[in-house]
Design brief:
Elements (H helix, E strand, L loop, with lengths): L5 H14 L4 E7 L3 H14 L5 E7 L4 H6 L6 E5 L7 E4 L6 H14 L6 H8 L5 E7 L6 H14 L3 E7 L4 H6 L7 E4 L3 E4 L4 H11 L3
Helix pairs in contact: 4-6
Length: 213
């Protein structure tokens, strides 16, 4: 049974036809559980809508690509161009409002566009230390995609940034470790955190503050 309705498929086909430029690879990491199976179906249905999108499957924990990229849990998705690297990552089922985040990331990666203010891009170019951003979300949170998309834009703009969407409902243990009680909740480099869907400049300021930049 298809997860996408006929109307959704028709809409996304038009969007991808109009907006995709270059090929996009969705590296999918599975541990064989039900969330992984559901994520795989979502990705298969997206890839079926446009030939520019392909899915590459990997199994945890033995996969060498997972070890190289530091993927340590599943389901996980890395969105990138063929032959390229990317810090744009999803952990957990990209369901609810976060399905839209995945679609928009696919378009951004395909087009090679980064919709950030010029001064933000300049600050990111000066970044020399590695940054790991984890944005904890839930499927029904309408504000979470804004934080996820901002984090992913930072990852597209800087090779030093890895940005994860983490579905808190799929990784309760991880959410408890960071004391997640409200979403979106963003954790930077394991120690610094802030809550809320901040405007892009303010989000970046918090990230740079976390790394002492």
């Amino acid at each position: 049974m298809s997860l996408l309705s006929a109307d959704d498929r028709e809409y996304l086909e038009r969007e991808f036809q109009a907006k995709l430029k270059d090929k996009v690879v969705l590296d999918f990491f599975s541990d064989g559980t039900e969330p992984s199976r559901l994520t795989e179906q979502i990705l298969e249905e997206l890839a079926a809508l446009n030939g520019q999108i392909s899915v590459r499957r990997h199994n945890l924990p033995e996969d060498s690509t997972a070890r190289r990229l530091g993927i340590d849990k599943a389901p996980a998705i890395v969105v990138r161009r063929p032959g390229g690297a990317s810090g744009v990552r999803f952990y957990g089922v990209p369901a609810g409002y976060e399905f839209g985040s995945l679609v928009e990331d696919i378009i951004d990666v395909s087009r090679g566009t980064i919709d950030l203010p010029r001064d933000a891009l300049e600050e990111l170019r000066e970044l020399e230390s590695d940054v790991h951003i984890q944005v904890f979300v839930t499927p029904g949170c309408p504000y979470c995609p804004r934080a996820v998309r901002t984090a992913h834009k930072l990852a597209l703009a800087s090779k030093h940034v890895i940005a994860d969407m983490v579905m808190a409902t799929d990784f309760n243990g991880l959410a408890n470790r960071y004391g997640i009680s409200a979403v979106p909740h963003t954790v930077v480099n394991e120690k610094f955190s802030f809550v809320g869907a901040l405007p892009e400049r303010e989000f970046l300021a918090q990230v740079l503050k976390a790394v002492g930049h």
